[in-house]
Write a structure and sequence with these properties.
2 helices; single chain; 75 residues; mainly alpha
């Protein structure tokens, strides 16, 4: 029997967690940098959309991981 941390699903969950944390840090830093340097709202909105896309991708990966675990439950 494999340990919980050794499974492919656990590694995928860790990658999703790192992605979420990375996107969150990126978003906060870019917002702070943009306000410090006086970037236009249009420029900041581009980075906001990029962060939104990153969060959406992480949500999609989380859903896929959840579905894979649901499918494995029946086995």
């Amino acid at each position: 029997m494999a340990k919980h941390g050794d499974t492919a699903q656990a590694r995928a969950g860790q990658r999703v967690a790192l992605l979420l944390a990375g996107v969150g840090v990126f978003w906060v830093l870019i917002t702070m940098i943009g306000s410090e340097y006086g970037w236009s709202m249009r420029t900041r909105a581009i980075f906001d959309l990029a962060a939104l896309a990153g969060f959406g991708f992480a949500l999609w990966q989380t859903y896929r991981l959840w579905r894979a675990r649901q499918n494995d439950k029946g086995r």
